[in-house]
Amino acid sequence: MTARTSRCSSMVIALTGFMGCGKSSVGRELSTLLGIPLIDLDQYIEKKAGRSIPDIFAHDGETAFRNLESEALKELLSGVFPLEKVLRTPPKQAWVPPSYVAEGGTFFEGEYPAQNNLILSLGGGTILRPENAALIKERCKCFFLRATEEALRLHLGGEQSQRPLLKSGGFEALLRERTPLYTAAADFIIDVDSLSPMQVAGIIANLIS
Ligand code: S3P
Questions:
Q1: Closest residue CA from atom 9 of ligand 1
Q2: Which residues are within 8 A (CB) of 46 and not within 5 positions of it... i.e. 6 or more apart?
Q3: Burial class of 169 by CB neighbour count within 10 A (0 to 12, 13 to 18, 19+)
Q4: Distance 3 CA to ligand 1 centre (A)
Q5: Closest Cα partner for 58 from 168, 178, 176, 155?
Q6: Average pLDDT, the chain
Q7: Residue 90 has pLDDT above 50, yes or no
Q8: Measured from the CA of 69, which atom of ligand 1 is nearest?
Q9: Percent of the chain beyond pLDDT 70?
């Protein structure tokens, strides 16, 4: 599929949902489909901190991770961030707007993303803090990729042991507790169980056009 320029302007498309719902793969498909950059919040945090998320959880704890997450979200949505370091160029993506790429290591300061488009794949717990949820509501068109517990478990498979919050069990309780938060943050809810990432991306593209 070839990239095409988004018909929308000045839009941050946020993808939310529980771990394993497909936020990152849908983000990549959507980025290809619309020809706009994708930033994965988890990757952004890891690059900024120079450490992996499991390492941050293991050594500094969840609160420290949540602080980094809130800070990263604010940075991204206020348009001052080292974009060049985090810009994801999926293999299939043919087109990256050159003006979006900052000089090596320097911070991109300007109107981005306020006057440009961005896809932001959030972490599964980004919406936990009310101030994050409020910022997402204010600045983004937010899509909740809703999946059943069975589909999530299937999708996560062996990865469950690498997710700090799933290591000690509690999958069901977390999902129950968070579903209303994803729902409240969302402008649109998409039931993704029977859909491929490309199909979900297609639905989102239609919803915003
Ligand atoms: C988390 C989800 C993870 C990551 C961190 C915490 C959560 O992101 O941010 O491990 O609280 O649900 P994904 O949803 O992308 O796996």
A1: 123
A2: 52, 53
A3: exposed
A4: 29
A5: 168
A6: 78
A7: no
A8: 9
A9: 73
DSSP letter (8 states) at residue 108: E
Q: Which residues line ligand 1 (CB under 6 A)?
A: 19, 23, 42, 53, 123-125, 163-165
Q: What is the dihedral of CA 19, 146, 139, 37, to 10 degrees?
A: 70
Instruction: Answer for the pair 32, 88: CB distance below 8 angstroms, yes or no.
Output: no
Helix (H, G, I), strand (E, B) or coil at 95: coil
Give the DSSP H or E segment for 38: strand 38-40
Average pLDDT over residues 107-131: 72
Q: Which of 45, 163, 174 for a ligand 1 pocket mutation test, highest count of atoms within 8 Å of Cβ?
A: 163
Q: Tokens for 165, please give them.
A: 């919050």
Percent of residues in the chain assigned helix, strand, coil, to nearest 5: 55, 15, 35
Question: Lowest mean pLDDT: which of 18-27, 88-97, 167-176?
Answer: 88-97
Please compute the mean of the pLDDT values over residues 150-165 and round it to a whole number.
79
The secondary element (H helix, E strand) that includes residue 184 is helix 171-185
Give 26 Cα–ligand 1 centroid separation in angstroms: 16
Ligand 1 center from residue 88 Cα (angstroms): 18
Distance, CA of 173 to chain centre: 22
Taking only the tens place, the pLDDT of each residue in 166-178 is 776 688 899 999 9
